[in-house]
Design a protein that fits this description.
The complex is a heterodimer of chains A (469) and B (1029). Chain A has 469 residues and is an alpha/beta fold. Helices cover 33% and strands 16% of the residues of chain A. Chain A has a single domain, classed as Alkaline Phosphatase, subunit A, CATH 3.40.720. In chain A, helix 2 runs parallel beside helix 9, helix 9 runs antiparallel to helix 10 and helix 12 packs parallel to helix 13. Chain A is globular, with a radius of gyration of 24 Å. The two termini of chain A are 29 Å apart. Among the domains of chain B are: 101 residues, no CATH class; 159 residues, no CATH class; 76 residues; 213 residues, no CATH class; 99 residues, no CATH class. Chain B has 35 helices and 24 strands. In chain B, the strands form seven sheets. In chain B, strands 3, 5, 6, 8, 12, 16 and 18 form a seven-stranded antiparallel sheet that branches. In chain B, strands 4-7-17-10-11 form a five-stranded antiparallel sheet, with no helix packed on it. A four-stranded mixed sheet of chain B has the order 9-15-14-13, with no helix packed on it. In chain B, helix 33 crosses helix 35. Classes of the chains: A alpha/beta (469), B alpha+beta (1029). Chains A and B meet through helix 7, strand 6, helix 9 and helix 10 of A and strand 23, helix 30, helix 33, helix 34 and helix 35 of B.
């Protein structure tokens, strides 16, 4: 069993991690004379994975609602010719096209495609900016999953199984690697869509891992972290005075009881204090140069996908291990044409900017960027001729950086984008590959719970070596 | 408690102390086999015909001629040969598998076979038997048998127990453990003043009798019951099931025997003449999540809920990981996949209901009203000696000239709001409840010569709120418009609207405005009233069916007479003969989509047609009375006869006065809410083994049954939940009592005697004190499964009363304190963190039970994008926001942050072991969350008003409120310094006191209050404040 906490932690090490402030100094003095026992290990101390890793951190651009691969990444000229006809019966395989509407008819792609970069990646005209970084992308056109409804689908995409309660990819990552930031949470989550992801907090949950591995939601307005601000009437100095008194009293208790949990608590309050400074500083985009803001299309003080992408880069720079932006906006049962245009206008530029920006800072090599939703959409129409239903059997996800092989398009689907015809990649396979890039063998990286070793890939998954540089 | 030892020693020692060699197999051999071999050679798969999970199978010659295990002859045992082989083709486990044996494990297995390969059943699969008390060197330390077991192990490890904790620490520990609330200074003083040797026991008695004990311990159980106030999944809508939570509180408070507690929760509805409480108890099973995302397959999520129920029984009651056998036979325990589905089959026999439940006072009222009505009816019968003859005559009359109705085989033809309807065997449709207004359409291919009228029945159903027939929380609905179109089959688009000459119903309420709850945002006012509202062409007016509390949930019917008979199959319609008749059921009286409380749509309904001529009007005799009349007179039950009389008397003109009196009694019937429960299903569902747990891959049908490795079922037991429930709490169950006592133990000591509270199977942890575990389990069962008895035994032990200071030497030997050479010390659970702050500050509202409350929470959590859809979190205004944390409305997808950050589970699945983290987000919460800040302010106020005049007095008082003890000199110095510094800063204008505490009339007071608020905030955040020492 993988155990990140086996290293022994000396008292000196604890003191070094304990942080700044008068409280810590008083504590150090106290500990010098006490019978206190070594502090409990910090579950977020940075750790190396068991194998050489290509990616050190992850930025996951989660496209909730499931964007249509047929209008964005998987061109199907043949589908246009079949517009208005039913899917050939031979393809149905006894399985209805959608849960709601078994008699629906094929719908041609709404947007044309063109080739980009040296790799000649085929992208929709809705994605002009992404086209500029096409050679950095690893496009997987042959993704498939098990669930066909949003909540279970999102939970599976993030935790491996379609039922709530397992640790998310981000939780596993910080469980395995800890964090390189002493001042910020290890796993940060943004929500930028029109509504929350259907899977709710389960999609960034810690499952049965310690709750410290749960994603911490950051907001672009108000307190970035819940209860970060002092109550009105408590200024920075009173806060410091209070925490110093608190630390001294807790240190006295530590000296008396010798319980390492007290030391951890002192530590937690100091990190909380540092977060009170570092989080607002992080969120303040007004310090970014104008050309960077323009590159992303971000506006300081405004919640948007663009701002979150820029914040993701800032978090990555500060050592945060896993950053996930949930953009729930793609459930186009109707208004497919206009809806895709709107959402691409919001997301295309920042996605491309994030890749270019990471690259120009030399961070793309060890930052894995993931883009994708919980499933794809049907080649058949729904609600007239401007909507598509859920389709778990074939969809697109792309990766960039972090050791993913740049400039390739992996896998193939049939002429309708209905079924995968080459190199299928299941959610478990994608997870196995991501863990591989982070330096883990997905079959060994597990946690014992309720009598069984659990892992992100459940009992399946294989590393897709074709996706790795 | 000394008597108990004498009692035990006086007993014949039927069972020897657990022999060490027995556990050697369990501890040393079984885990190796289970982890590395059983997945291919266990109860599930037996590759090459080999099974290693039982000795007689492992020692049998195989088809290949070899024998895996030849006891005493390792060299000739195939198993030894294979595990030592260097040939990759031969070696076991296969080199490419996930499993590999270490050289040491190979050695252990070889030696074990050399010693004769003794197998022993896994310790936890044999029922516990009362062990002998171990001998201890120091007979003076122990207070009851628990201590003998603990001390014997400590002595064996050359360790010593710690001294008893000081009295204040003890009292705070007791308070937090038994009630989850800290002691008030007066309670501390009273205990310190009580010098009797019984002082401590008196405190135990006092706390066990306190009704807040039930709240605290209910909270532990509710984790296992995965209790929540919402459905989970995408929309995560509100559900009303808090009566179940109150049932659990009550059960702990009255010390309902645990076996009965389990029986009621699994099958209370199947007990003879169940009480309301026993039906409410089945909410345990109903706590599963429900998905109402549009377009989901209801059976898929019903199956997911059934899996969850099996899991809750496994984790929460048996302490076994049953869920592992959902997709394949269990990898470690001898549980086959088929056996899993046999357990599943037991639970697969229920209707999911939402019965009306009455609070205690309401229940009294109902009984009283029924008594008064019965009395009036008896008087009526006495006043008319020949009433029976007259009733029979009436029965004969109403039996004549009934309209002949043909139930129509309608087809669903769409719904404007994507509602789902499920066809029932009797031709009716059952709606899956969903709020938005809609028009549902159904078609019928009519081949009758003509149709003269239609009948719409609104039918009750056990699965509808309050039993229906509507979908509103009270089971009501309204029909805005009933329209019918007819078109020739040959040309179905040529639709013509059918005109009605009359509409009649068996219940016509007076005109009433629609309750504001159902209006919905921006919707225009609407009314309900008599049946003609359904054909008036105005969808603002609807036929309503509300007959008031107590009589709402009955079948209703309406009849619509066609102005001109529909000549369906006759010319001039061309061939093919026949016509398509489309029914539109307008339901314009619901509120907002996504909020089930605003649902006012039809629940279950059925459409019939008639070809009779003449006046087509409704039968005024209600359906339930017709159903009784259909039974021959001698065959009717007493209740049916009485029900018939209650209806008939309303038709007797000379009884008007008495009828009016009864009618006025009905007006007093209490308005009650509902809860989620189960009711027996007469036709059990078929249960299949599901391949890989996939609903769409059913294999063989299974009948209800229990796993062979556990105790047997009584022969000829009915295959229902009651049988399962009784089996779970059978005295012979090897894990039920052990699992419970272990969890209670863990609540006190932080870790269970078996660390894996959820798993007593082969892969579970080895018990630290197996004999103590069995002693507690037997003691618990022998004392009538009394949880209070168990609590008393634990808290009066010397083990429990030790101080919790950590000393370096024993710490090095036993860092996790599994041997209990000291008392437990850990941060209390999230709910208790909050309750301590509320209690110390004096804000705590101690009211017990009732609906879940919505204290202040960040509003954005309940709006998109944080919430999938807007959720109606209506912040409490009065002191309801200061209720114990247990009552906080628990929404699964956005759990209350101040609790969730402190590791409260989210209710996705049964949880018997919380993680206990220590994070900066917790620090931010207890420092800055609004209720915590209010607590600091209020504690400051108490210190000033009740504490005394000087800083020393006030600080001591606030300190005692939070920590029970008084501060040391060193602590006092720090705190006085803090107050003085802050007082200076507030006085000299560096900070404004009113920013912190709001406007107060007197400035001096404001400065003091603000400075003490800073101090109180520190006190409530001390490690000790949120820790049980």
């Amino acid at each position: 069993m993988w155990s990140p906490l086996v290293q022994s932690h000396s008292r000196r090490r604890f003191l070094n991690q304990c942080g700044v402030g008068l409280g810590a100094i008083a504590l150090a003095e106290l500990l010098g004379n006490s019978k206190a026992i070594a502090a409990a290990p910090n579950p977020l101390a940075p750790r190396l994975p068991p194998f050489a890793a290509k990616a050190k951190r992850v930025i996951y651009l989660y496209m909730g609602g499931a964007p249509s691969q047929l209008e964005l990444f998987d061109p199907k000229p043949e589908l246009a010719r079949w517009q208005g006809k039913p899917l050939p019966a031979s393809m149905l395989d006894g399985r209805p096209t959608t849960a709601n509407d078994p008699d629906s008819l094929l719908l041609g792609p709404k947007y044309p495609f063109s080739r980009h970069g040296h790799s000649g990646a085929q992208l929709s005209e809705l994605l002009p900016h992404l086209g500029k970084v096409a050679d950095d992308l690893t496009i997987i056109r042959s993704m498939h999953t098990d669930a066909s409804n949003h909540a279970p689908g999102q939970i599976q995409m993030n935790t491996g199984v379609p039922l709530a309660g397992r640790p998310s990819l981000g939780a596993w990552t910080t469980y395995g690697l800890g964090s390189e930031s002493a001042d910020l949470p290890a796993f940060v989550v943004f929500s930028t869509g029109t509504k929350n992801v259907s899977g709710g907090a389960a999609t960034w949950g810690n499952g049965f891992l310690p709750s410290i591995h749960q994603g911490v939601q950051f907001r672009n307005v108000g307190d970035p972290v819940l209860y970060l601000s002092n109550p009105p009437g408590i200024d920075a100095r009173t806060q410091r005075d209070s925490l110093d008194t608190l630390a001294r009293l807790n240190a006295m208790k530590l000296a008396e009881m010798g319980d390492p949990e007290i030391a951890t608590r002192i530590n937690s309050y100091e990190l909380a204090y540092r977060m009170q400074t570092s989080a607002p500083e992080l969120m303040d985009l007004s310090t970014e140069p104008r050309h960077v803001l323009e590159m992303y299309g971000a506006e300081p003080g405004k919640t948007s996908f663009a701002s979150s992408c820029l914040l993701a880069r800032r978090l990555a720079e500060r050592g945060v291990r896993f950053i996930q932006i949930f953009h729930e906006a793609w459930d186009h049962h109707t208004h497919l044409t206009a809806g895709l245009k709107t959402e691409c206008e919001k997301t295309d530029k920042p996605c491309a900017a994030l890749i270019a920006d990471l690259k120009q800072r030399g961070m793309l090599d060890d930052t894995l960027v993931i883009w994708g939703g919980e499933f794809g959409r049907t080649p058949t129409a729904q609600g007239g001729t401007d909507g598509r239903d859920h389709h778990p059997d074939c969809f697109t996800v792309w990766l960039a950086g972090g050791g993913a092989k740049p400039g390739i398009t992996h896998g193939q689907s049939d002429d309708f984008g209905y079924k995968i015809t080459d190199s299928p990649v299941h959610v478990h396979d994608l997870h196995a590959t991501i863990l591989h890039l982070l330096g883990f063998d997905h079959t060994k990286f597990n946690h014992r719970f309720q009598g069984r070793n659990y892992r992100l890939t459940d009992t399946a998954g294989r590393v897709v070596h074709d996706l790795i540089a | 408690m000394r008597w108990m030892i004498a009692f035990l020693i006086g007993m014949p020692l039927a069972v020897g102390a657990a022999p060490i060699e027995l556990r050697d197999f369990a501890r040393d051999i079984l885990p190796i086999l289970s982890e590395n071999c059983f997945s291919c050679h266990g109860a599930g798969k037996h590759k090459s015909g080999l099974r290693l999970d039982a000795r007689e199978l492992a020692t049998k010659p195989l088809k290949s001629g070899a024998t895996a295990i030849l006891p005493g002859k390792p060299a000739q045992s195939e198993l030894v040969k294979r595990i030592r082989s260097t040939d990759d083709e031969e070696r076991m486990p296969p080199p490419d598998s996930d499993h590999q044996l270490t050289p040491q494990q190979v050695e252990t297995l070889t030696r074990w076979i050399a010693e004769g390969a003794p197998y022993q059943a896994h310790w936890a699969f044999t029922a516990p038997a009362l062990p002998a008390l171990p001998l201890v060197k120091d007979p003076k330390w122990g207070r009851n048998p628990i201590d003998d077991f603990i001390l014997a192990t400590l002595e064996k490890n050359e360790m010593h127990p710690s001294p008893e904790a000081d009295r204040i620490t003890l009292l705070r520990r007791l308070h937090l453990d038994l009630m989850g609330l800290p002691p008030a200074p007066a309670e501390v003083d009273a205990f310190l003043a009580d010098t009797s040797p019984l002082a401590y026991d008196r405190q135990v008695d006092r706390l066990l009798a306190n009704p807040h004990y039930g709240e605290h311990w209910a909270r532990h159980w509710l984790d296992a019951a995965r209790y929540a106030d919402s459905n989970g999944y995408q929309r995560d809508k509100l559900r009303v099931i808090w009566p179940y939570r109150d049932y659990v509180i009550g059960a702990f408070n009255r010390d309902l025997p645990y076996d009965q507690f389990i029986i009621e929760q699994i099958a209370g509805d199947e007990l003879p003449h169940p009480t309301q409480d026993q039906i409410v108890a089945t909410g345990f099973l109903r706590n599963s999540m429900m998905n109402d995302e549009g377009g989901v397959d209801p059976e898929e999520f019903r199956t997911a809920a059934m899996f969850d129920r099996v899991d809750a029984v496994g984790t929460g009651i048996l302490g076994l990981t049953l869920q592992c056998a959902q997709c394949h036979s269990h990898k470690n325990d001898p549980l086959t996949q088929e056996e899993y589905y046999k357990l599943f089959a037991f639970l697969n026999d229920a209707h999911e209901t939402q019965p009306v439940v009455y609070a205690a006072d309401e229940l009294t009222k109902v009984t009283e009203l029924k008594r008064q009505m019965g009395q009036i009816e008896s008087e009526l019968q006495r006043s008319m000696p020949d009433w029976k003859t007259r009733e029979d005559e009436w029965e004969r009359l109403v039996g004549q000239h009934q309209t002949h109705w043909i139930v129509l085989p309608t087809e669903y033809a769409g719904d404007s709001a994507e509602h789902w309807y499920v066809k029932q065997e009797d031709g009716s449709w059952l709606a899956t409840p969903s709020a938005p207004r809609s028009t549902a359409s159904f078609t019928w291919l009519c081949r009758l010569p003509h149709v003269t009228g239609f009948r719409l029945e609104l039918l009750t159903d056990p699965t509808l709120p309050a039993g229906g027939p509507g979908c509103s929380p009270a089971g009501l609905c309204a029909l805005s418009e009933f329209t019918v179109e007819v078109a020739p089959l040959a040309d179905p688009v040529q639709k013509a609207r059918v005109k009605f000459s009359s509409a009649t119903s068996d219940f016509d309420p007076p005109i009433k405005s629609l309750d504001i709850v159902f209006l919905g945002a921006g919707a225009s006012p609407r009314v309900t009233g008599p049946i003609h509202f359904a054909i008036d062409g105005d969808d603002h007016s609807a036929w309503g069916i509300d007959a008031g509390p107590g009589r709402r949930n009955r079948d209703r019917k309406a009849v619509f007479q066609c102005e001109v008979p529909i000549a369906a199959a006759a010319p001039p319609f061309p061939q093919p003969a026949g016509s398509v008749i489309t029914f539109h059921l307008g339901q314009n009286h619901s509120g907002t989509a996504g909020d089930d409380r605003t649902n006012y749509n039809l629940g279950r309904f059925r459409i019939s047609a008639t070809t009779d001529s003449g006046n087509i009007v409704v039968d005024q005799v209600p359906k339930e009375i017709r159903d009784i009349l259909a039974i021959r007179i001698g065959k009717r039950t007493k209740a049916q006869t009485a029900q018939l009389f209650s209806y008939w008397r309303t038709t007797v003109p000379e009884w008007k006065e008495a009828n009016d009196r009864i009618e006025s009694l009905w007006k007093q019937w209490p308005v009650a809410g509902t809860t989620l429960a189960l009711s027996p299903r007469l036709q059990p569902r078929e249960t299949h083994v599901l391949i890989r747990g996939d609903l769409h891959s059913p294999a063989q049908i299974v009948t209800a049954g229990t796993p062979a490795f556990l105790h047997p079922l009584p022969p000829d037991a009915e295959p229902n939940r009651l049988t399962l429930a009784r089996w779970l709490v059978d005295r012979r169950s090897p894990t039920t009592a052990r699992a419970l006592v272990n969890r209670v133990w863990a609540a006190y000591f932080g870790t269970g005697l078996v660390e894996t509270l959820e798993d007593f199977g082969i892969a579970g942890a080895v018990p630290s004190h197996p004999e103590l575990l069995d002693f507690l389990a037997c003691e618990f069962m022998d004392h009538g499964w009394s949880i209070k008895h168990l609590q008393r035994l634990i808290v009066t032990s010397a083990t429990y009363r030790q101080r919790s200071n950590i000393d370096a030497v024993p710490y090095a030997k036993d860092p996790y304190n599994r041997l209990l050479a000291r008392g437990a010390r850990f941060r209390v659970d999230g709910e208790t963190v909050r309750d301590i702050a509320l209690s110390a500050s004096g804000l705590l509202n101690l009211r017990i039970g009732g609906r879940s409350v919505m204290p202040p929470a960040p509003a954005f959590l309940f709006q998109p994008p944080a919430s999938f859809a807007t959720f109606p979190w209506v912040e409490e205004t009065g002191d309801e926001k200061y209720r114990r944390a247990l009552y906080t409305f628990h929404r699964r997808s956005t759990p209350y942050p101040a609790l969730q950050i402190f590791d409260a589970p989210n209710g996705f699945a049964s949880c018997v072991r919380r993680t206990r983290s220590n994070s900066p987000l917790q620090a931010l919460t207890s420092l800055n969350e609004p209720i915590f800040v209010e607590c600091a302010k209020s504690l400051a106020k108490r210190a000033m008003v009740e504490g005394g005049k000087t800083d020393g007095e006030r600080i001591t008082y606030a300190f005692r409120l939070a920590l029970a003890r008084a501060p040391s000199v060193a602590e006092m110095i720090e705190l006085v310094l803090l107050v003085q510094t802050q007082r200076d800063r507030f006085t000299n204008g560096e900070m404004k006191p009113t920013d912190l505490i709001g406007l107060v009339p007197d400035r001096t007071n404001a400065v003091e209050w603000a400075a003490y608020t800073v101090l109180s905030r520190v006190l409530l955040n001390l490690d000790e404040a949120m820790t049980k020492e």
